[in-house]
Specification:
Distance between the termini: 33 Å
Structural class: mainly alpha
Oligomer: single chain
Radius of gyration: 25 Å
Helix content: 55-70%
Largest sheet: 2 strands, antiparallel
Low-confidence stretches: none
Strand content: under 5%
Number of helices: 22
Order of helices and strands: HHHHHHHHHEEHHHHHHHHHHHHH
Length: 563
């Protein structure tokens, strides 16, 4: 097993449990309230709790081990952000959406699935504001079932990809290595490295207070959002629109993105990224405007009067998503051909796992294959027989079997090799759904026309777990202790307190309301955009762009391998 030399240890201790409970009691209600009032927090607050317990442990002369620190980060994050099972605050949006003017205007209110939001009109009108109602049963039940399926499938795929890219191909995982180094510094407390760590943390704190704290505090105190540092970028696109229409020009104001250059392993990688960004931003979009304007519908009026976020959204939606899908398929084919020996060695090694692998809590090939096949089968049957009965099988199999495997293979390898993952094409599933419904003549205003939009089609790729297992191996933390801490300790605490706090907040007031301005402002915007997809007012999948990009990228990759 790769990683630091030393004994494998459990990271689950009573101190981790205490930090988890503290996080759920203190941070969770704050984050729920803030999410409704000012929006999602721009920074991860997990660090605050971990550093608090880190210094408390030092004061009492019993420092936290790096295994405890790793598990504490995961458990505290799970408890604070309640990323498990049914996220009850998201149910607020579901209830409001089901009775919103935009849904009634498009005539889909009565077509919303019972397993996504209750049918009861009193619940939808928020006359009854409680989750302790029988009609919430199917919503909670299916949310929990698919969360469990997602968990076990993610762990199995994650371990497979971890073993493939760590033990067989021995890729460097540069960004995951940063986490290993941070945990090692916190445990060893070497004076020189601690000074750098504390100084970096102080600089980050000051920057975050100016960049993120000022807008949040000004919005809360005086009702006016004041930005000293433009987030996430300084938009300069308008200055270039006369010369380069559609060009995306901006200055990233997040210093962390510039520091990536220190971590990324190869100079030519940074150069290639920079060149690609310049081509897409300064050449690609203007070429579309000049020579291929038909690729973007006229009603969009691209790029007239648009700022950087709008140019980015519409050009991605109609151009670069299709290009990235074709390129992704090309990379997938190239990886299968070029790395076939590595895949074979992975299957062979996992068929009889070593004693070290068993000590770490690893899975055998039989376990991985069995868990994945059973999970996929159950997922497919639940969709096909209960949630969206009658939906065409082939597109469904593509979304829950083919696409996760394809995306997982290329994105995890990219991250393990370069430190940067390949982002999933936005609205990819939406385009596949629309293409399927149009091909099979499924009416918009029907169960098969609406229910699939709310079905759980996001099958895990194992990306997060592969990264987690690498970090565990780096600090010699047993995989089982990590999983137990997150899903047997943090998850139950998070679900229970998430329910209690959400129930209490909902009883105080209907949501959204003047008490929760963020929800009142942004929920209608999100709903309007979603309904445009549900009613097929937007469709951006361009098969020819996918085919052309597939051929070009596969050809370039083949030539590069020959040379």
């Amino acid at each position: 097993m790769s990683g630091e030399a030393g004994e494998w240890k459990s990271g689950l201790t009573w101190r981790v449990v205490l930090a988890t409970i503290y996080s759920a009691v203190v941070l969770l209600p704050t984050l729920i309230w803030a999410g409704l009032m000012i929006g999602p927090p721009p920074v991860d607050l997990t660090w605050a709790v971990v550093i608090l317990f880190y210094w408390l442990a030092l004061m009492y002369g019993a420092p936290l081990s790096k295994q405890e620190l790793l598990v504490m980060f995961a458990a505290v994050g799970t408890a604070a952000y309640a990323g498990v099972g049914l996220d009850f605050p998201s149910a607020f949006y579901r209830v409001w959406f089901s009775n919103s003017p935009i849904v009634h205007a498009y005539g889909i209110s009565e077509l919303l699935p019972y397993w996504w939001v209750p049918k009861n009109e009193l619940i939808r009108a928020q006359v009854i504001r409680t989750f302790l109602h029988p009609e919430w049963g199917p919503v909670i039940l299916f949310s929990m079932i698919f969360w469990i399926l997602s968990l076990v499938m993610g762990i199995s795929l994650g371990f497979f990809y971890y073993y493939l890219y760590t033990e067989v191909e021995k890729l460097p995982w540069p960004m995951a290595r940063v986490n290993v180094e941070i945990l090692s510094v916190l445990e060893s407390r070497e004076p020189e490295r601690m000074r750098i760590f504390v100084l970096s943390a102080l600089i980050g704190f000051v920057y975050s207070m100016i960049a993120y704290g000022t807008p949040i505090l000004s919005q809360s105190l005086i009702g006016l959002r004041i930005e000293i540092i433009p987030i996430p970028w300084l938009d300069m696109s308008e200055a270039f629109q006369d010369v380069l229409p559609g060009a995306m020009v901006g200055l990233d104001t997040n210093p962390l993105n510039y520091l990536l250059g220190i971590v990324l392993p190869w100079y030519h990688l940074v150069v290639c990224m920079f060149a690609t960004s310049l081509f897409v931003s300064l050449i690609g979009n203007p070429m579309v405007v000049w020579y291929f304007p038909y690729l973007i519908p006229k009603w969009v009026e691209f790029p007239k009067g648009m700022k950087l976020p709008d140019i980015l959204y519409w050009s991605n939606l109609y151009i670069w998503i299709a290009v990235s899908i074709g390129a992704g398929f090309a990379v997938f084919v190239e990886q299968i051909i070029a790395r076939r020996k590595s895949l074979y060695m992975t299957f062979k090694s996992l068929y009889k796992p070593s004693s070290t692998l068993k000590l770490a809590g690893g899975l055998s090939f039989k376990s991985i294959l069995g868990i994945y096949l059973v999970g996929t089968l159950v997922w497919f049957l639940l969709l096909e027989l209960i949630l969206i009965p009658g939906f065409p099988m082939l597109p469904l199999l593509f979304l829950i079997v083919v696409w996760p495997a394809l995306y997982g293979l290329i994105s995890i390898r990219a991250y393990a090799e370069t430190g940067l993952s390949i982002p999933a094409p936005p609205e990819f599933t939406s385009n596949i759904l629309i293409a399927t419904m149009m091909a099979y003549n499924i009416p918009v205003h029907s169960k098969l026309g609406i229910w699939p939009w709310f079905a759980p089609l996001g099958v895990p790729t194992g990306f997060g777990w592969a990264r987690t297992f690498y970090i565990c191996s780096g600090v010699r933390c047993t995989f089982r202790s990590y999983i137990k801490a997150v899903y047997l300790v943090a998850a139950p605490v998070a679900m229970l307190l998430n329910f209690i706090f959400s129930e209490f907040i909902w009883k105080m007031s209907y949501i959204p309301s003047p008490m929760f301005p963020y929800a009142q402002i942004f929920w209608p915007l999100d709903a309007a955009r979603s309904v445009l997809w549900y009613t097929r007012q937007i469709y951006s999948l361009n098969p020819m762009l996918i085919i052309y990009s597939f051929i070009i990228v596969l050809g370039m990759s083949s030539v590069a391998n020959i040379l």
